[in-house]
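Replying to the earlier thread about multi-chain prediction with a worked example.

Input:
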Amino acid sequence: MGEFKVHRVRFFNYVPSGIRCVAYNNQSNRLAVSRTDGTVEIYNLSANYFQEKFFPGHESRATEALCWAEGQRLFSAGLNGEIMEYDLQALNIKYAMDAFGGPIWSMAASPSGSQLLVGCEDGSVKLFQITPDKIQFERNFDRQKSKRHFSWGGRILSLSWHPSGTHIAAGSIDYISVFDVKSGSAVHKMIVDRQYMGVSKRKCIVWGVAFLSDGTIISVDSAGKVQFWDSATGTLVKSHLIANADVQSIAVADQEDSFVVGTAEGTVFHFQLVPVTSNSSEKQWVRTKPFQHHTHDVRTVAHSPTALISGGTDTHLVFRPLMEKVEVKNYDAALRKITFPHRCLISCSKKRQLLLFQFAHHLELWRLGSTVATGKNGDTLPLSKNADHLLHLKTKGPENIICSCISPCGSWIAYSTVSRFFLYRLNYEHDNISLKRVSKMPAFLRSALQILFSEDSTKLFVASNQGALHIVQLSGGSFKHLHAFQPQSGTVEAMCLLAVSPDGNWLAASGTSAGVHVYNVKQLKLHCTVPAYNFPVTAMAIAPNTNNLVIAHSDQQVFEYSIPDKQYTDWSRTVQKQGFHHLWLQRDTPITHISFHPKRPMHILLHDAYMFCIIDKSLPLPNDKTLLYNPFPPTNESDVIRRRTAHAFKISKIYKPLLFMDLLDERTLVAVERPLDDIIAQLPPPIKKKKFGT
Amino acid sequence: MAALEEEFTLSSVVLSAGPEGLLGVEQSDKTDQFLVTDSGRTVILYKVSDQKPLGSWSVKQGQIITCPAVCNFQTGEYVVVHDNKLSAEVYRILSVQGTEPLVLFKEGAVRGLEALLADPQQKIETVISDEEVIKWTKFFVVFRHPVLIFITEKHGNYFAYVQMFNSRILTKYTLLLGQDENSVIKSFTASVDRKFISLMSLSSDGCIYETLIPIRPADPEKNQSLVKSLLLKAVVSGNARNGVALTALDQDHVAVLGSPLAASKECLSVWNIKFQTLQTSKELPQGTSGQLWYYGEHLFMLHGKSLTVIPYKCEVSSLAGALGKLKHSQDPGTHVVSHFVNWETPQGCGLGFQNSEQSRRILRRRKIEVSLQPEVPPSKQLLSTIMKDSEKHIEVEVRKFLALKQTPDFHTVIGDTVTGLLERCKAEPSFYPRNCLMQLIQTHVLSYSLCPDLMEIALKKKDVQLLQLCLQQFPDIPESVTCACLKIFLSIGDDSLQETDVNMESVFDYSINSVHDEKMEEQTEILQNGFNPEEDKCNNCDQELNKKPQDETKESTSCPVVQKRAALLNAILHSAYSETFLLPHLKDIPAQHITLFLKYLYFLYLKCSENATMTLPGIHPPTLNQIMDWICLLLDANFTVVVMMPEAKRLLINLYKLVKSQISVYSELNKIEVSFRELQKLNQEKNNRGLYSIEVLELF
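Result:
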């Protein structure tokens, strides 16, 4: 099949940000996740948990609360005191509005979805009305004097609406208040015990509250307690001590028969409402299952109808399915841990053997080493030259980098933040490298979602967040704007993925939901649109010579579409007719990169986080009875048997987690790995738990 | 489970065994001593347990012993016949305990030894026909009546003669060989029952057949035929060169000597005839004379040139064990309850065959007997029995019912039976069918909630054996009852304990290898899971302890309670409980009993710490966790009381030191954990391939 020299790169020092909030939207089956750097990601749980959208972070916008309201509108609030709404079509922030209550710690949308409640640092609870295009401040709830401190009450750390919308519960430091929404006055104030394992702590922080329709309020606090309160009388009904550390989050199922809490020890506990005895109508809350999928604080939890969702400092997003709620064995039945973004953070200059790594606030440029030795499968070759760190490019300003790219010739680097687009020209003189920023970028190139250079590095393609695609001509040290493909009338959908044909004639662009558009770059017009498919595109590429567009979707289907013929190729039709191997379809990370072999037109190279695969279109497809992945080299079987058992999918699982893989030349691959241990080593130490003794 | 133990040779002196082997091995009047008659001139009396001869006698040169020496149990004399010197040729002298020896002449006549010696020259009649030869004989006492059976052979036909000696009735039977007329019977053995002699024969085809011979014949005058039935197939190779021998060991087991395959070496094998399984076998590579004797618990045979004894034991075993050679695996952590009905429990099957002449029928015949009874369901009959009959009779009926395999309504009948018995117990204070109750508990179908009265009555009667059984069998005993049992177990006097027969399975006799133990302790003093009585930083305790250092070693090595009490306490340790419910009841136990129990637990703990696995020896010992939990429980419940008692002071100091040392061990472990983590990190770095490498990949 082929022997390659593989540059195995582990110096991409990428550490994902910790997860701060998750918000589950039952209507669209999507999950919004905010990270500590302010990034907000949208996962489509119906599309095989694909991360279909993201909003880049911002240094000053630590998101403390995230919620869906009015159906599919997403709001966040943070320590800068602002409430923000996200535009899920154009992938930008619609507006930010100061709540004037200091840092915001909590937010909750009313059961009807028309009102938004925020809890502020100064102890105020503010009610906002959601209008069709904005939010409007309505009023403050009565603030209460803290009896203990003879000052205004502490920050409001948690909020929950009664399902009828008449009352709310607000968790603060040392107490929980119940407000009447109509009058805005406090009905009850319930003091939370500070005692922690018999020792009085300085403060007891109510990290989370949940208001149930029967009037029960469930609170979780920093003393490790889960407590049940009667909101009618303001009394404590029941208390569970579940952790030696803070219980930081709570989420209740819509049916109110189950809820989930997360602790600072990394444990997630499932509570269920079960009958006291069988056939009895009297029910009580029982702690049923503990799960330990995290090493660090579980900062946030969510409860979908079929799964418990948790995230925290250890950066993993964990979906733990509730087996009793899962009816068919499909994607929903498996435990999922999502650690890496579902997009490419790495680009590569084949000509100069350079790798460009994208971090939140800087770029790194590395030159790969070389070797003159040869060896057999599995050998590690002695290096004649090690890899070099050439460049460390820091962004200016607080915004995170959205995307970046290095040109195939290695002479251009482009990247973009939310408000600025940067283009650099690189000059190589022997071992020295000089960098010159191309100034005076036009106003329309303010923010890009995706950047791509043509194969000959003469053209730059930019997908702007307004839905437009810009073509820029590069020559010498200057550039010229050639054309802008405007989005089709009426839509503002942003394009997230670009692919250009090696001959530079065709440009394919894909949005988050609609099909893939193919443009003719020579004639500067839309050539065709690939038929829409109901799963989002995770990666695409155009093959040399044939100009076949290969598209991978989040349901693990791969299509090949002939651009000149405007139709799917025969091979693609054959694949669809026979279907992929069941193990191929059961993979749980999306394909993030596709490339081709310059000398072997029948080969497609693609990879996800756990495997690298070469599809040889000339070989028969595997059926469900054949072994999809065979890690062992064939023994001395006769050619007949080998030909009979050989199939189109050649898979290697040596490199994992695999963030990037590409072909440098005919016989050389580059693989960028990011071992989980290296990420854990950079996280703050978890709460230490003794293994021995008391 | 039947088992053969390690063999031993009785005498290094080579016996002058002829080609036919020994003349015989016979019992003497002492249980451990046996008379061995060789084929020459010598009779030797051996003491088997000492493995040495006690005495030997020889006849004059030129004379020859013609039948094996026997013991006259009535006089204690040994009788031997040399040169057939009597009025007619003697086939054998037969002697069993409790009756006078009989002399069987080769012509089939039988005489009492006394009568014969009184008139040695009397005329001996001929009983069997010409050319008929006696092949084998055996002498039984059935209901104090001597019964003699001998088998003769004439032209390939076999005849059995049963002589009721007292009534002088001789009955002759023809043994029908069945289809295979050519087979030759190689060896006989017989066991006796009230009505039948079960004659087992090993044929030349290698199979064992059984023939049932009635003791009291219906018509003594008529010549009757007996049919044999196949008992075991092909236990030995039919055409073996060497002799084969067969002997019954007990109701269910036979020992067979011979080669299992034509070519293989000779083997002694023990078969269970009830389940048709091979229980055990032993290879005898030097060959045998094809003779086998079985007395008491010893199998005698000539192995090579020397007389070899193989002790045979048949322990009470489970059905699973009897059905094949299954391993009895015992998980030390869990309470293993056998789920098989123990068929042999009423009497145990370790008894020698000779001793069990009472009615012990094999299952097949028992079934027949039951079917002959009027058509009343056995369960109904049992229930009616319970209400009126005597304890003895109830016991018999219950036993009968239990023997009848498990019927569909087995559980309910057992439940009803127990309830009935208990009701009657309450009504009649003198009525206490202990054996019945024990048997019923052992069916494993009862639980505390089914019959709460059972333990109440046992508590009232202070029947510790029954209580122990309940604790072992019932899964749902409330804590208050467990505690009541504990109270009795602690308070019952040692002398009354002696009379009881408690199950000692969970207790290991520590006194046996106490010497060894002490040695062990010295060596492992430093280990002991961190507990070292010597090492102490608490000055006060140190002084206290140094006063009586000898006392302490004594305390730690000798068990503070007697074995039987230990067994009872272990049953408590094994029982399930919930701390909250147990604690209030523990407070009611007198302080000196608490101290005793604590001392015992502490002793167990010390025993535990003697080995690396932290377990106690024995079949089903308490686990370390159980011991520690109970120490904590007792101290929690009674600390204020115990702390005031001067005699408990030493114990408390020891326990305090134990805890202290444990804490220091754990803190050390915590320290080590950090070091280990660093090592792990180093190891990871080593495994790390570094940040960059170029490798070769080939895809197939």
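Chain A is about 5% helix and 50% strand.

Feel free to reuse this layout for your own posts.
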